[in-house]
Predict the 3D structure of the following.
Amino acid sequence: MKKEVLEVVSETIFRMGEFLRKEGFIELLPVIISPLTDPLNHSVNEAKIPYEDGFYHLTKSMIFHKQLALRTYPKIFIFSPNVRLETKDKKHTGRHLIEFTQLDLEVKDATREDILTLVENLIIYTMEKLHEKFKDFIEKKNPNFHIPKRPFERIKYLEAKNLYGEDFEAILSKKATEPFFLIDIPIEEREFYDRLSEDGKTLVDMDLIYPYSFQEGMSGGERENELERIIFRMKAKNMDPNEWQWYLDEVKKSIPRSAGCGIGIERFVRFVLNLPNIKDTKLFAKLPGEISL
Ligand code: AMP
Ligand code: MG
């Protein structure tokens, strides 16, 4: 591991936090264990710790805690350690770890467009600051490095899929030289908490896709916050609302309307430095399907 890679990770965390503070955000400490965590839209091995008469989950994402935190403060971010015990078929994607960190942020009363603009500016600011500090190292590692131009293109998920087929994300990422957003993701591709559009089929949400085949680096959207809509969405996913009492009790007390996203730190650094594998971004990388230090 090159010591410069660690310096880039460290500077990334510093500059992303600095940018968000200037935008009026405050940083919260992470939640590591809770009876409530992200159900995700794909299956992973359970990471549950028995405790007294119950159990804790290790955090897969802080989505619900972000929503609850907005009752206290309207613009928040967390460098959130996530444990997702991904299945071993993901071992060779180059993009999956079972322990990673996302910069998870959420804004009360924001729209998707607000978050898209924020993410564009956050990515550009951080890349500029990294380039100022590590010009020679970055240019040596990444001959494609350049500061992206705003606005990043917004591409509708279903239009891209119709044009390029099942593998559209990989194909578009390979062709691209600028980051872009995939928007309006179909309901069945996402968790229940991203907000349903008027059309009843797609969500008011987005993924950020890095160019040069680095693929997805961020997911987010506007969120559901009303009880009836949330129960409707849980049922559409064949989830049993009785198993979600921790969350539904809070929704009944009311949670604010919001939008937000999570940006994977390791995937961002891999993209900036053109690294062959996400494991090259950290000292104690844990790949799916193996036990590592
Ligand atoms: P998600 O909301 O599931 O899309 O996760 C948010 C972001 O976290 C993704 O866009 C990635 O940048 C990052 N991420 C998700 N899962 C992993 C993983 N297994 N390994 C590394 N980064 C991940
Ligand atoms: Mg995602």
The radius of gyration is 19 Å.
